[in-house]
Amino acid sequence: MTVQETASVNRNAESVPTPEEVEAGVHSIADRARAASRRMARANRAWKDLALEQIAQDVVARRDAVLAANAKDVERGRSSGTSEALLDRLTLTPERIDALALALRNLAGLPDPVGSVARGQTLPNGLRMRQVHVPLGVVGAIYEARPNVTLDIAGLALKSGNAVILRGGSAAAATNTVLVNLIRDSLDTVGLPSDAVQTIDQYGRPGANFLMKARGKVDVLIPRGGRDLIQNVVTNAAVPVIETGEGNVHIYLDETAPEEMAVDILLNAKTQRPSVCNTVETLLIHADCAAAREVLSALAAAGVRLHADERIRGILPQGTAVLEATEEDWGREYMDLDLAVAMVDSMDEALEHIRTFSTGHTEAIITNDLANAERFIAEIDSAAVIVNASTRFTDGGELGLGAEVGISTQKMHARGPMGLKELTTTKWIIQGDGQVRA
Fold first, then answer.
1. CA 37-383-392 angle, 5° bins
2. How far are the Cα atoms of 171, 172, 227, 234, 239 from residue 243, in angstroms, in the given order?
3. Higher pLDDT residue, 399 or 356?
4. What distance in Å separates the CA atoms of residue 62 and residue 67, rounded to the nearest whole number?
5. Which among 178, 193, 347, 368 has the fewest CB atoms less than 10 Å away?
6. Burial class of residue 6, CB neighbours in 10 A (0-12, 13-18, 19+)
7. 163 pairs with which residues across the strands?
């Protein structure tokens, strides 16, 4: 039964599965994913790259079907009051589909991490040992309202030799159904197992709950979405979780920040695509920063709603629309054209503010002072630290990773944009000539 057929069956009120049936269904999918992962682990780079190219071709060839399904999801979201920021994440356009296809092709051009040697040596007793990268196995991904993630995660999982089980959420159900069927068809075309990419969307939230408890059947879970989704997975999963985090991203303008650079970076970091996790959410401005008024005026003129503290409100040009910042604003991920702004008297104060409210995603400094830049790099403990560039570059594609599963804000083996190598683990290979331990 295809994903579409399964979803159709489950929409029928008379065929709503019992919890036992949902658990059995999820476990069956996981078992098939395990079998597929063994075949994927043996696939060479050429075969996996062929699959990525086929998926890229098929998503462009079936663009109309994808867009038609996506239009249904967007209309349903708009009717139910979904915010404009989430609607932007949900929406696919011909240009975005072309970009997704290009990302898959770029991914095919990257080196295969599987089999690469992390380290190795020959021991004094003649044993030859290597630590090599191998696939994680079965990866579960739980995300919401992001149909682009369906292709990103599937592509990365396939290239790194894994099988993936997707839970894309009800908001993008129609789009994801078409995309998953498309990917599976592409895998069939090139002779790789279609069960390397499966979905449990047909089982809804109960299916996600059973996926989180499928320890031993699923090797790792990756949640991607808002705080509630991520914390639900982290708190309730029995399967190991690689935590991706929300992005309360900061930019600090020190007293030497060049005006033109500061304006360009802030406009890009806030307005280019405000609904994504690497957009700036808090701006800290040194009291002696000569660029402050121009930056704030440019942001306001671009339609950014400034949530400013008392000192910032005091330097704004007369007539600038502004909101009074509250304590809640400093910890918010707006994902919209809103920006919290505070004035600080020193880098110490800026660093303390960031330590207090950061989610560990991305922080940036704009400066002409090398010592300030070096101190900021050394003392900021986030997944990405940027000097004199937009925070929008914290992105797998922009950093040459082909795509990303998410931005990890934890401190385990994967931190920051998670690309191919982050979807592998390692194993030790030890070869000898009859050695025994004394």
1. 95
2. 22, 22, 11, 7, 12
3. 356
4. 9
5. 368
6. middle
7. 138
Percent of the chain with pLDDT strictly greater than 90: 82
Look up residue 432 and give its two tokens: 């000898």
Region of 141 please: left (phi>0), alpha (psi -120 to 50) or beta.
Answer: beta
Could you read off the pLDDT of 382-392 as tens digits, one per residue?
999 999 999 99
Q: What is the Cα–Cα distance from 219 to 60, expressed in whole angstroms?
A: 32
- Residue burial 410-426, b: 16+ Cβ < 10 Å; e: rest: eeeebbbbbbbbbbbee
User: 251 with 284: CB under 8 angstroms?
Assistant: yes
The neighbour count for residue 298, using CB atoms within 10 Å, is: 19
Distance set, CA 139 to CA 42, 166, 299 (Å): 17, 9, 41
pLDDT value, residue 6: 52
72 touches 178 (CB < 8 A):
no
Please work out, in degrees rounded to the nearest 5, the angle formed at the alpha carbon of residue 370 by the alpha carbons of 365 and 374: 65
Question: pLDDT tens digits for 105-114?
Answer: 999 999 999 9
User: Looking at the chain, how many residues does it have?
Assistant: 438
Give per-residue burial for 98-114: e unless 16+ CB within 10 Å, then b.
eebbebbbbbbebebbb
How far is C-alpha 100 from the geometric centre of its chain's CA atoms?
Answer: 14
Whose tokens are 């040596």? That residue is 121
pLDDT at residue number 14: 53
d(CA 196, CA 371): 49
Name residues whose C-beta falls within 8 Å of residue 278's C-beta, 6 or more positions apart in sequence: 247, 249, 361, 362, 391, 392, 393, 394, 395, 407
Contact in structure between 306 and 290 (CB atoms under 8 Å): no
